[in-house]
Design goal:
Layout (H helix, E strand, L loop, with lengths): L1 E4 L2 H12 L7 H23 L1 H4 L6 E7 L4 E6 L6 H7 L6 H8 L5 H9 L12 E9 L6 E6 L4 E7 L5 E8 L9 H12 L5 E6 L2 E4 L16 H12 L7 E7 L5 E7 L16 E5 L2 E5 L12 E6 L8 H4 L3 H24 L1 H16 L9 H7 L3 E2 L8 H6 L8 E5 L11 H5 L4 E4 L4 H4 L5 E2 L2 E5 L20 H11 L5 E4 L8 E4 L5 H11 L11 E4 L4 H9 L5 H15 L7 H17 L1
Parallel strand pairs: 2-8, 12-14, 16-17, 16-19, 20-22
Antiparallel strand pairs: 1-6, 2-3, 3-7, 4-5, 4-7, 5-6, 8-9, 10-11, 11-14, 12-13, 15-17, 18-19, 21-22
The chain binds adenosine-5'-diphosphate (ADP) and magnesium ion.
The site of adenosine-5'-diphosphate (ADP) has 16 residues, from α2.
C-alpha cells in the first residue's frame, strides 16, 4: 500500500467541502455521473477510431448501486478507467485552471465561500459533502491491474492493488449519518432525472438484485424544440456547465441542407470565474454523430468564450484531431454560421426583451466588444449590439437611438473614453452648450477597440478628446496675437508635461482641457500598441487647450500681470487631468501652487 499526500489546493477544497454550510449537496451526484460519462466518452471514441480498442464489444453504461446495509452509494461506469499514476494525478492534485482560480477567489469566510461553490462545479471532490470516506476502484482499459484509491478527506490518501473484472471505475461513497437521504431510491431517481436525464448514456439504479434504467439517455439537443420543456433546457445547462444557476438564454438550432448539424448554445447568468484568464476553459463541446469528440477553444471565437453548449455535426469524421480542427472546412463553416446565429439571436433578444438583454450586456458586453477588433466580418452587427450611456442618458441606449437623437446641425457621432466618471469632463463643455449628446465609454477595453471604429451607418465616429472634432464646428476665430503673452507664460512651467498649449473655443465652463491630435503619429502608435495587447504602452503627451475667455485668464490678460502664471498653470493642468479621470501628477507641487494662489486671494 502506498500513502500519498494531497496537494495544498486539494486540502483547502476538501476542508471547504466538509465544513461548508452548502445546502445544495445533491450536485455531488451530477458531478460523479458527469465524470462517468466523460470516461465513457473517451472509451467510446477510442473503440470507434483506434484499432487497439475496436474489438472491445463496448456497451457503455453507468450503474448506481444503493447498498442499504453498508450505507454505501456506488457510482460505476465501464469507461476508460484510471491506472495508478492517473489516480494519484487526477484525484490528488488540481490541474484545472478554473478550479485553481476558484480557490484563489475564496475568502476564508465559509458562508461566502459556500455561495461561490454554488456558482462553480467542483467535480470529484464534491463527493466529500455527503461521504466521510470515499473509495475509487479503477481498471484502465487495456491494463491488467486494478487499483483502489481510498481517502477520508484528511491530508492523505492511499493507493493499493485491487480486483475488478473489466475496465471502468467504481466510486464508492460511505454516506454520512446526516445524509442518508442519498440512500433513498426515490431521492436518487429524482436527482438523476433532474440533472442527468439527457446525458447520452443509460443510467441504471441497482438495489439488491433489482436493476432498472432511470434516465432517458437521449441527447437533449437531438430532440426537436417542442419536445423539450423549459426546465429540461435549464437542467441540461447545469449538467454541461457545472454552473448551478439557471442560464440567461439559450439558442437551439438544427441546420439541414448541405451541412447537417445541431447546435445548442447557452448564455450563463453569471460570469464564468475564468472569463478573463488567458487559460480559460472552453465551454463548447464538439460531438460527431452523438459521440463526444472534444471541447476546444477553437470551436467559437475568443470573444464568445462565455457561451456554453454543444455543436453536433453529422458530416465530420470521428477521428478529427485538434490539429485538424483548425483547418477543417466543414467545421469552419459551422463555426461561421454559429457565430452569425448567436449574434442574430442576441439582436432579437435586444429588441424583444430589453431587461434580459441589459443583464446580458452588463455581464458580457466587455467581452463581446473584443470582437470589434477581431471579427471584421460581423463588425456591423457587433456595433448594433452595443449599449452605452451618454452625457444625456443614464439609461443604456444604442447607436440607432443616438442617431435618432442627433441635432440637425450635428455632423458626427461623438464619444469620450475614460476609465472613471466622465460626466464632468471639460471636453463636454461645447457639446453641452450645443445640446449634443456624447457617448461615454468607460470599460477598460474601450480605449483600444473604440478608436478603430471610424464609422457607423455612414456617420463618422469622433472622439471629443481629439482635435479632429474642431472641424465639425464653425470655429469662432480667436485673436491669437492678443493671447501671445498668456500662452508664453503658461507654457514655461508645463513645457515638459504637454506637447503644446493652444487656445480653443471648445470650452465654456472650464479653463482648460487635454486633447490629442488624431494624426499625431505618437498617438496612433499608442493606440496600435494597445490594440496589440501592450496595455502598458506609454501614453503620449497631450495638448493642453485653454479657454482664454475664462475668468482665470481674462484677469491676467487685462492687468497684464503674469506673476502667478506658474501656479495657475500647475493647477489648471492638474484640474484638467482629474476631470478626465487621471491623477494629479505631483500632489505636493500641486498643493503648494494652490496655497500660493489662495494666500494671494486672501491678501485682498
Ligand atoms: P473534471 O471532471 O472537471 O476534470 P473532476 O474533479 O470531476 O474534474 O475529475 C478529475 C479527474 O479525475 C477527471 O478529469 C478524470 O481524469 C478523472 N476521473 C474522475 N472520475 C473518473 C471516472 N469515473 N473514470 C475515469 N476518470 C475519472
Ligand atoms: Mg468532473
Amino acid at each position: 500500500m502506498a500513502k500519498h499526500t494531497f496537494n495544498a489546493e486539494v486540502t483547502k477544497l476538501l476542508h471547504l467541502m466538509i465544513h461548508s454550510l452548502y445546502s445544495n449537496k445533491e450536485i455531488f451526484l451530477r458531478e460523479l455521473i458527469s465524470n462517468a460519462a466523460d470516461a465513457l466518452d473517451k472509451l467510446h471514441l477510442l473503440t470507434l477510431t483506434d484499432e487497439k480498442y475496436k474489438g472491445f464489444g463496448f456497451e457503455p453504461k453507468i450503474t448506481i448501486t444503493i447498498d442499504v446495509i453498508e450505507k454505501r452509494l456506488i457510482i460505476s461506469d465501464n469507461g476508460i478507467g484510471m491506472d495508478e499514476v492517473e489516480l494519484v494525478e487526477n484525484l490528488g492534485t488540481i490541474a484545472k485552471s478554473g478550479t485553481k482560480s476558484f480557490l484563489e477567489n475564496l475568502s476564508g469566510d465559509i458562508k461566502k465561500d459556500a455561495q461561490l461553490i454554488g456558482q462553480f462545479g467542483v467535480g470529484f471532490y464534491s463527493a466529500f459533502m455527503v461521504a466521510d470516506k470515499v473509495e475509487v476502484v479503477s481498471k484502465k482499459a487495456g491494463d491488467d491491474k486494478t487499483w483502489i484509491w481510498r481517502s477520508s478527506a484528511e491530508d492523505e490518501f492511499e493507493i493499493d492493488e485491487a480486483v475488478r473484472e473489466s475496465q471502468g471505475t467504481d466510486v464508492i461513497l460511505y454516506i454520512k449519518k446526516d445524509n442518508e437521504e442519498f440512500l433513498n431510491e426515490y431521492r436518487i431517481k429524482e436527482i438523476v432525472k433532474k440533472y442527468s436525464d439527457h446525458i447520452p448514456y443509460k443510467i441504471f439504479l441497482k438495489i439488491g438484485d433489482k436493476e432498472e434504467q432511470i434516465n432517458r439517455a437521449s441527447a437533449l439537443w437531438k430532440l426537436s424544440k417542442n419536445e423539450i420543456k423549459e426546465e429540461e433546457y435549464k437542467e441540461f445547462y447545469k449538467t454541461i456547465s457545472h454552473d448551478n444557476n439557471d442560464p440567461l438564454y439559450w439558442i437551439h438550432t438544427k441546420a439541414e441542407g448541405t451541412l447537417e448539424y445541431t447546435t445548442l448554445f447557452y448564455i450563463p447568468s453569471v460570469r464564468p470565474i475564468d472569463l478573463f484568464r488567458a487559460d480559460y476553459e472552453p465551454g463548447v463541446k464538439l460531438y460527431v454523430k452523438n459521440v463526444f469528440i472534444m471541447d476546444d477553444k477553437e470551436l467559437l471565437p475568443v470573444y464568445l468564450r462565455f457561451i456554453r453548449g454543444i455543436i453536433d455535426s453529422e458530416d465530420l469524421p470521428l477521428n478529427v484531431s485538434r490539429e485538424m480542427l483548425q483547418h477543417n472546412t466543414i467545421l469552419a463553416k459551422i463555426k461561421k454560421s454559429s457565430v452569425k446565429k448567436i449574434l442574430t439571436e442576441l439582436k432579437k433578444l435586444k429588441n424583444h426583451d430589453r431587461e434580459k438583454y441589459i443583464k446580458f450586456w452588463e455581464l458580457f458586453g466587455k467581452v463581446l466588444k473584443e470582437g470589434l477588433v477581431s471579427d471584421f466580418e460581423n463588425r456591423e452587427t457587433l456595433l448594433e449590439l452595443m449599449l452605452f450611456k451618454t452625457s444625456k442618458s443614464d439609461e443604456y441606449i444604442d447607436f440607432e437611438t443616438y442617431i435618432k437623437n442627433m441635432k440637425e446641425n450635428q455632423k458626427s457621432i461623438y464619444y469620450l473614453i475614460g476609465e472613471k466618471e466622465l460626466k464632468d469632463s471639460p471636453l463636454l463643455d461645447r457639446f453641452k452648450k450645443e445640446e449634443m449628446e456624447v457617448i461615454l465609454f468607460n470599460d477598460e477595453i474601450d480605449s483600444f477597440v473604440i478608436p478603430s471604429i471610424t464609422e457607423y451607418k455612414e456617420k463618422k465616429l469622433k472622439s471629443v478628446s481629439s482635435t479632429e472634432v474642431d472641424e465639425d464646428f464653425e470655429n469662432t476665430k480667436i485673436d491669437d496675437e492678443k493671447y501671445k503673452d498668456l500662452i508664453e507664460a503658461i507654457k514655461k512651467p508645463l513645457k515638459e508635461k504637454v506637447k503644446d498649449i493652444r487656445i480653443t473655443s471648445r470650452l465654456v465652463d472650464n479653463p482648460a482641457c487635454l486633447v490629442f491630435d488624431k494624426d499625431d503619429p505618437e498617438f496612433q502608435t499608442y493606440i496600435m500598441l494597445k490594440q496589440m495587447g501592450h496595455f502598458d504602452a506609454k501614453e503620449p503627451k497631450a495638448v493642453l487647450e485653454i479657454n482664454p475667455e475664462h475668468e482665470v485668464f481674462t484677469k491676467m490678460v487685462l492687468k497684464n500681470d503674469y506673476s502667478l502664471a506658474n501656479e495657475v498653470a500647475e493647477v489648471i493642468y492638474n484640474e484638467a487631468r482629474v476631470l478626465e479621470g487621471m491623477e494629479i501628477e505631483d500632489a505636493a507641487k500641486f498643493a503648494k501652487s494652490l496655497n500660493t494662489i489662495l494666500s494671494k486671494a486672501l491678501e485682498k
